[in-house]
């Protein structure tokens, strides 16, 4: 009986080590900035991007320099739009898993929303 216990202890220690090591590496969203919900889509992060997930734009505010192209990525399971409040740009419908890009050539703050889901609102500030 004593030998069985002594043989089991190293196996339990090894199993515990593997378990705790794998759990400690899981924290966070893997670098995706999309409101904490990518709905199973594992699109790589894109510089100067905004994601649509969990019925929100993420980040809610973004600052870029004039001439920057921003990519809007739909990581949700439903169609969205990216529509400027002042009508300077409009993506039309963006299906789940698809994206839209827009180049900001004028400095200013551009508020935008989803025409389909009115609570979805965000803004982009363009600097010189």
Description of the molecule:
The chain is of the alpha/beta class and 128 residues long. The chain has a domain at 49-127: Immunoglobulin-like. The chain contains 1 helix and 8 strands; from the N terminus they run H-E-E-E-E-E-E-E-E. The strands form 2 sheets. It has a 4-stranded mixed β-sheet, with no helix packed on it. The protein starts with a helix and ends with a strand. 23% of the residues are buried.
Please report the total strand number as a whole number.
8
Summed over residues and divided by their number, the pLDDT gives a mean of: 78
Helix amount, in percent? Answer: 10-25%
CATH architecture of the domain at 49-127: Sandwich
C-alpha geometry: globular
Whole-number radius of gyration? 22 Å
Strand content: 25-35%
Biggest sheet character: 4 strands, mixed
CATH level-4 homologous superfamily of the domain at 49-127? Cupredoxins -  blue copper proteins
Strand order of the largest sheet: 2-1-4-6
SSE-based structural type: alpha/beta
Specify the number of helices. Answer: 1
Order of helices and strands: HEEEEEEEE
CATH class of the domain at 49-127: Mainly Beta
Low-confidence stretches: 12-42
CATH fold-level label of the domain at 49-127: Immunoglobulin-like
End-to-end distance:
77 Å
């Amino acid at each position: 009986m004593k030998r069985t216990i002594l043989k089991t202890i190293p196996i339990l220690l090894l199993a515990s080590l593997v378990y705790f090591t794998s759990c400690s590496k899981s924290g966070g969203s893997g670098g995706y900035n999309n409101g904490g919900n990518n709905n199973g889509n594992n699109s790589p992060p894109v510089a100067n991007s905004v994601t649509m997930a969990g019925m929100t734009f993420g980040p809610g505010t973004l600052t870029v320099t004039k001439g920057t192209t921003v990519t809007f990525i739909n990581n949700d399971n439903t169609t969205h739009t990216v529509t400027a409040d002042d009508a300077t740009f409009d993506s039309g419908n963006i299906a789940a898993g698809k994206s839209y890009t827009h180049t900001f050539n004028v400095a200013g703050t551009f508020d935008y929303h989803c025409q389909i889901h009115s609570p979805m609102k965000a803004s982009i500030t363009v600097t010189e």
